[in-house]
Amino acid sequence: MTTVTVRTTVVTMTLENNEETRADGRALDQLRSVRMTRGWSGTGEGSVLIESGNTRVLCVASLTAGVPRWRKDSGLGWVTGEYAMLPRATSDRSQRESVKGKISGRTQEISRLIGRSLRAVVDMAALGENTIVLDCDVLRADGGTRTASVTGAWVALADAVRWGTENGLIHPQASAPVLSDSVSAISVGIIDGVPMLDLPYEEDVRAQTDMNVVQTGSGKFVEVQGTAEHALFDREELGQLLDLATAGNATLHNLQQRGLEAEVGTTVSLED
Fold first, then answer.
1. How far apart are CA 40 and CA 58, in angstroms?
2. pTM score of the predicted model
3. Which structural domains are found in the chain, ordered by start?
4. Pick from 7-21, 170-184, 249-263: least confident
């Protein structure tokens, strides 16, 4: 496990109404209350319950020897993710996709995002011919479920790599650790012309521009998903959104590191 030193970016907002608070009382550049509890499920080689405001996601890492057939005898491992929502994660019950017999495009998209985000910081040769699957199940949804999934999944992945190393499945070298960095994700958006960080559902549905930003602990970008859903945005607004996301992800990185340093079962939060 590599400890990464992050360069925290200080964001200076030039918006006249930066001091205004939102419906939940937060400042425009403030994260929701975030809590992480490692080992919450009691199963899996790594697990974490991540809570971001009212959004709750259980991320469980399963490590198995061997790789998919197309990867066999390559000397490389594989990391992937699967995302799902409980039927009553929202105000109305939705039918289980397994019962419907069809996985929605949204579920597939988010599952692939989780896998891509994690693979960006994994040395597959150092992992060896082992597979780690990250199952991210949304217990309660109030916006930001995909970003919480990425952030929590990395912590579960780190614990699975640690478990695999301690139990002889993974044989990393000091010069080639399995994990080169951390990964986290956060949402940003523009509402009524104002850039904001970490959107709950109430804000997400009103956003003129909605963006999800995945970054490493060192601040490099893994993926940026942004859409002008109701109003176009310019280059200056894009910069403001990325600055907000960078500061938010830096805070999440620090929380991830604190979580890994704490005893399993201990909850760490931004308020600690």
1. 8
2. 0.91
3. 34-88+103-264 (3.30.230.70)
4. 7-21
